[in-house]
Amino acid sequence: MAAINTSSLHVFQILRMLAGAHGPLGVTDVARAMELSPSTVHRALSTLEAAGYIRRDATTTKYEIGLMPQVLGRSMLDRHPLRRVAAPTLRRLADASGETISLTVRVGWYGVRIAVVHGASDIYQHRRLGEFGLLQEQPASRVILASLPEIEIQRYRRFVRGAAPAAAAFADRAPFLRELAAITAAGCAIGTSADGLGTILALPVRGGEGALVAAIALAGPTVPAHDIETDPRVAAWRAEISRLEADIRTAPQHAADPFAHIPADDIQFTGRA
Amino acid sequence: MPTMSLSVFRYDAVKLERNTRRIGAWMARKSRSMADAGDDAAEPESGSKTNKATVRILEVLSAFAGDRPDYGVTELAQALGMTKNMVFRAINTLVDQGYLVRTASGTRYELSYRVLDLMNPYQRDPDLPTLVAPFMAACSEITGETVLLAIRSADQFVVIGGIEAKADIVSRVPLGLTNPLHVSPSGRAMLAAMTDAEIEGYLRRNAPLRRVTPTTITEPAALWQEVRSVRARGYALGYGDSTTPKTSIGYAVRDAEGYVWGAVAAGGPAERFTEEKLRAALPRLNEVATTLAARTRLYTAVPLPAAIG
C-alpha cells in the first residue's frame, strides 16, 4: 500500500470539515480546530479552491463548500436508475400536492434521499438531496426498515450497536418493534419536520415479489397527519405510486441497486451518521 | 440580407466524450490559473501556493462527475493528460479516503456513496447564473465576444446576466430584456429544445407571432423549419436580429427533468465575429455546451408559481 501524502490527507480532512460547517470558515478557524499551522491550512484551502471544491466568500474572505462536492454527490445519486425512472411520478405528485416529494432508497443500513422534487407552493419544505441516515431516522427509511424480514432487522440492530451506540438505544427497545409493526399495518409512516411546521408522510414503493425498493415521502404544511386511510388525496397519491410499481414489476432493472455488490455491514458513512 | 450557411458538424460519440473530458480538464486548469492570478495573498510561503499532487488527486475525482459511471486507469490518464502512475496513486488515495470504489467487475472505479459526506446540508442549490458561470467564461474566452444568459419564463425569456467582451465595439448585455421564445438565437434555441407538443402549445397561445425585428420568423411553417434546423445542429444562429450586422449563436440549457431552463448565447459585430471565426469556434463551443448540459442535468429548476385565475 503506497504511503499517502500527509498534505493530501490534510486537504481531505479540511474538506470534510467545511462540508459539515454551519457557515463559512476562515484560515484561523480551521487551523485552530485541526491543530495545524495557518500556512498548512492556507495551502490546503488554496488547493481545494483551485480545484473547485471550496469557494471563498468575497466579502468575508472565509471559505465554504463549493460546487464540485455537490456535483459529485449528484453524479453518484444518478447511478440509481430509479432516480430517472421515478422522476415523472415525483413531478406529478409534486404538482398534485404542491408539496415537496422525495425518494429514499436503502444503501446498506442507511436510507439515502436520492431525489427531491419541489411543488410550486410559495412556502415550501426544504428536503436535502443526498441526505443519509440510519434506517430508523426518517419516516421514508422507516418504511423500508419495517418491510425487512425479522432476520435483517436483527442484523440492523447489531450493526447499529457497533456503528452508532447512541442510536442503538432506540433500536433495542420494544417501542421500536411496535412502531415498525404499526408502519407495516398502516402501509405508511408519519413524522414531523425538524422545525415542527410540516408533516412528512412516507409511502412504500414495492418492486417484484413485494419487496420494497424505495419509499416516497411527501413533506409540507398541507400534508395530512391523520385519517390517512380515508383521505382521498392519499388514495390518489398511492394510485400514482402503484403505476410506478407496475413499471418496476415489468422492468426490474429500473430499480437496480448500484451498491448491491457491497455487503451492508461494510457500508459506513463517516461523521454525521 | 446575408444568410448563414454553416455545415452541420456531426459528432462521433466517442470523440465527443473524450472532448468533454478534455474541456473539463481544460476548465480545471483554467480555474487554477484564474485562482493563482487573482490571489495576491500576503502569506509568505516557502513552497508553492498549491499542492500539485493533491490538485491531481482532486482532478481525478472530478473526472467522475461527468456522464460516465466508471473509469479505468488508462482512460483517466488519457483524458486528464497524466501518467498512469499519477492516476494510479491518485486513485489509491481516493479509494483509501472512501470516495471511489472498485466496480463489481474489479477492474474499473466508480464514485462511492461516501461522496455524500462532502455535500454540506446547510448549502443551498446554486441558482442558474452560478451553475452556468464557468461555461459562460469559457464561451467568452473561446469567441472573444459578449456572452449572455437568458432564463425562460413561460412563453418568454429574460436576459439575467452576461459577460461583455473586452473590445471597443461590442455587443451589449441587455439585462432585463424580455422577448417571446420565437425571437433571437436564445429564444429559438430554447424553443427547439422543447417537445413538439410544447411548441404547438406555444404557437396556439401566441398566434399571430409577433414581429420584433425585420427578420423575425412569424410564419409557423418557417418556425418549424427553423426548429428542425436547430435540433439537427444543436444550436441556434442569429439572422440579423439587431440593427447592426451581428453574428450570434445560442445554446439551450435544460434541467434534470428536461425542462428548458434558459439559454447561453454569444454574439458580436459581424465584421469581427465573422462566419469563419464562428465556424472555427464551433467545435470548442459545442464541447462547452455538452459539458454544461451534463452539469445542469444534475439540478432541477425551481418551478414558477402558477398564475391565479
Brief description of this entry?
The complex is a heterodimer of chains A (273) and B (309). Chain A is of the alpha+beta class and 273 residues long. In chain A, 45% of the residues lie in helices and 17% in strands.
Rounded to the nearest angstrom, the distance between the terminal CA atoms of chain A is 28 Å
How much helix is in the residues of chain A?
Answer: 40-55%
Order of helices and strands of chain A: HHHEEHHHEEEHHHHEEEH
- Describe the strand arrangement of the main beta sheet of chain A, using strand numbers: 5-4-3-8-7-6
Q: Compute the gyration radius of chain B: what is it? A: 22 Å
Number of helices of chain A: 11
Oligomer: heterodimer
Low-pLDDT regions of chain B: 1-20, 31-47
Return Rg of chain A in Å.
21 Å
Strand element count of chain A: 8
What order do the SSEs of chain B take from the amino end to the carboxyl end, as H and E? HHEHHEEHEEEHHHEEEH
What is the mean pLDDT of chain B? 84
Q: What is the strand content of chain B?
A: 15-25%
Give the overall silhouette of chain A: globular
* Overall SS class of chain A: alpha+beta
Largest sheet of chain A: 6 strands, antiparallel
Would you mind describing this structure in some detail?
The complex is a heterodimer of chains A (273) and B (309). With 273 residues, chain A is an alpha+beta fold. Chain A is 45% helix and 17% strand. Chain A has helices at 6-19, 27-34, 38-50, 67-77, 81-85, 87-97, 139-146, 150-163, 165-171, 174-186, 232-250; strands at 54-56, 63-65, 100-107, 110-117, 132-134, 189-192, 199-206, 212-220. Chain A has a six-stranded antiparallel sheet with strand order 5-4-3-8-7-6, with helices on both faces. In chain A, a hairpin with a 2-residue loop joins strand 3 (100-107) and strand 4 (110-117). In chain A, helix 7 crosses helix 10. The two termini of chain A are 28 Å apart. In chain B, the strands form two sheets. In chain B, strands 6-5-4-9-8-7 form a six-stranded antiparallel sheet. Chain B has nine helices and nine strands. Chain B is of the alpha+beta class and 309 residues long. Mean pLDDT of chain B is 84; it is low at 1-20 and 31-47. Chains A and B meet through helix 1, helix 3, helix 4, helix 6 and strand 4 of A and helix 1, helix 2 and helix 4 of B.
